[in-house]
TrEMBL record:
Superkingdom: Bacteria
UniProt-listed PROSITE patterns: SULFATASE_1, SULFATASE_2, TAT
Annotated family: Belongs to the sulfatase family.
Keywords from the named record: Calcium, Glycoprotein, Hydrolase, Metal-binding
GO terms of molecular function: metal ion binding; sulfuric ester hydrolase activity
PANTHER family linked: ARYLSULFATASE, ARYLSULFATASE B
The Sulfatase N-terminal domain, residue ranges: 47-364
Protein's name in the database: Arylsulfatase
InterPro entries: Alkaline_phosphatase_core_sf (IPR017850), ARSB (IPR047115), Sulfatase_CS (IPR024607), Sulfatase_N (IPR000917), TAT_signal (IPR006311)
Amino acid sequence: MTDRTEKTEDQAPSRRDVLAGSAGFLAAVAGLSLLAPGARAQGATRPHILYILADDLGFADVGFHGSDIKTPNLDRLAAGGAKLSQFYTQPLCTPTRAALMTGRYPLRYGLQVGVVPSGGTYGLATDEFLLPQALKEVGYRTSLVGKWHLGHADRKYWPRQRGFDSFYGPLVGEIDHFKHEAHGVTDWYRDNTLVKEEGYDTELFGAEAARQLSAHDPKTPLFLYLAFTAPHTPFQAPQRYLDMYAHIADPSRRAYAAMITAMDEQIGKVVAALDARGMRENTLIVFHSDNGGTRNKMFVGEGALAGDPPASNAPYRDGKGSLYEGGTRVVALANWPGHIKPGQANGVMHVVDMLPTLAKLAGADLKQSKPLDGTDAWAALAAGDPGRGEVVYNVEPTTGAVRDGKWKLVWHVLLPPKVELFDLDADPEEKTDLSAQNPAKVAELKDKVVALARTMAPPLFFATALKATLSAPLATPDAALYELEMQDD
Ligand SMILES: [Ca+2]
């Protein structure tokens, strides 16, 4: 069996009893699910799509997961929608965003390692067919407000050239939230034009999204991709948000919490703008983080961090950059009144599923896509179905991890190698390695990783990293200083 056939296989045993909701709701979901894609799209249910990403948000760091960080607007969306308890992404920014745009794992097109670095001249392959292209073809207006991070060195990689009617925000992965700079260079665009603006980026994104909504003709379906840079480093927030967390002693945690609340407040304004425009009832809102919160300083970003990273992915292990659950099982919700069953949705979903799911709701055609890794996750999203049986966390030259049902293999191939097997049903915190007791399952999952590795595209990051290292300036100390030091000795 090839990995392709496995991915599309429905390994779900049965619909869960969470379906036992109200009759009216069931009728709505059943009606929507049974319609053919075209019919589904032609009815009144063809929704506007508000797709909100947070950047490096910890799994535990929202009010509806029990945090003391205030997120009342997200909590309200979660209470009225589905809290997605097993929604997976890639462990880093660029790969997750690429997976969302393509419906394909980043290992297919060389983005499985690292992120597009500031000095990187590559981007998401231009022969990939992207979500905004698909939606645009069926009449959606497509807008990106926020971070792109899928290539910046050549305009052919920029959002306006990839299916977005408009773009407002930064192209790279990490900017100063007030100066909108990366490495001292402004990275802030409106469409294809560099602009200089004052303000805190999170607030500018919220204001722009609300402005676009208030000017939007509700008869035209809208895809608004709102990709916040919060709460990614550097940890910065306006004083009034910092003041809300004056009781938090650690300055990083205080600013991190302030950034999350600032983002939440903007989400509230955007939802209010939907309401004011009469679009709320016909808008699917999806919210999730692009990867887990940072637990390892290596992935914290470009600036130095005093103390421990402030994010929490509890109860999950590790965080951003890691193949353990803390890096990839992210805080997520979906909300569409009357169409998505409120409550906990425990089905397994991966961000690659979102392109086929949204395309189907929109009646969009994906014939131009290369073979998809994603499958339509509507039943898992809307009605709590079990979702996909298999998840590919990532496969790259040094590591790989896959999930098959309850079993998860994490394989570090570099010397000294390490293989771990976890039973995620019994041990979602990945505390007990069961590889020694289950050699057959280990062998089977290793075969899957190897099969994927045989087909993967070469990682684009490596050549760039090597070039950057080999072309770096000479590292010997300044000659004059060195002579002074020698005299001191
Ligand atoms: Ca991120």
